[in-house]
Amino acid sequence: MRIDVVTLFPDFIRQSAELGVVGRAGERGLMQVACWNPRDYATDNYRRVDDRPFGGGPGMLMLIDPLRACLAAARQAAPEPAPVIYLSPQGERLTQRKVRQLAALPRLILLCGRYEGIDERLVASEVDEELSVGDYVLSGGELGAAIVIDAVGRLQEGALHHAESATQDSFEDGLLDCPHYTRPVEHELGTVPEVLRSGDHAAIARWRRQQALGRTWLRRPDLLARISLSKADQALLEAFRRDWLAKLGEKPSKP
């Protein structure tokens, strides 16, 4: 997979893409990240890429022409067609389902805004979709682009040491992940649950599923409302709820 990033801070993107799993994907030839700086396509002596917005107000807007020329160069750098995705708080919320869709594509172009954003005419004519990494505002799109690169990169086949790691992540099946433990068994902060030390793989699988259901119920009940639970899952969740409420001294209500 190839990801082209249009950004005023190419060094940040390059350094981010060299770390951890994504860096390993790059070393293995599974993903290529290329950066394009709009300043290189500015035509004035000051390499200007922004100007004041019409109508007044604080901040500056990124100019059309340097970005447009930069996008054109990025598109021509490889033969595969690529959607242009603008990182914006006004875009579709990034989810694991969306990440999987993007990871299946041969190529992406990520457009990073700065200042107060980008001239809307460029967005309307050159951008295929807008993507948000959360309901908050960042100084620019670079952090969002780094998040997309990391999330997409780790799903490239061969990027992870164990392929099953991705399938067990939070949100893959609509639930949060279960808790995990490692050595030592005994610690002043607590003891590793006995079931995880039992060697009974079926019991371990049931425990992990129940913990994922329970953790989602406790922390993100909105996620449970979006999925249809099997009768087995419903029984596991109800048992979790009973145990949890019993510890709090509360009487469980009907689900």
TrEMBL record:
Record keywords: Cytoplasm, Methyltransferase, S-adenosyl-L-methionine, Transferase, tRNA processing
Catalysis: reaction(s): guanosine(37) in tRNA + S-adenosyl-L-methionine = N(1)-methylguanosine(37) in tRNA + S-adenosyl-L-homocysteine + H(+)
Top EC group: transferase
Superkingdom to which the source organism belongs: Bacteria
GO cellular component, one term: cytosol
GO molecular function, one term: tRNA (guanine(37)-N1)-methyltransferase activity
Keyword Methyltransferase: yes
Chain ranges of the tRNA methyltransferase TRMD/TRM10-type domain: 1-225
Coiled-coil ranges (or none): none
Subunit structure: Homodimer.
Protein name, per record: tRNA (guanine-N(1)-)-methyltransferase
Taxonomic path: Bacteria, Pseudomonadati, Pseudomonadota, Gammaproteobacteria, Lysobacterales
Gene transcribed to yield this protein: trmD
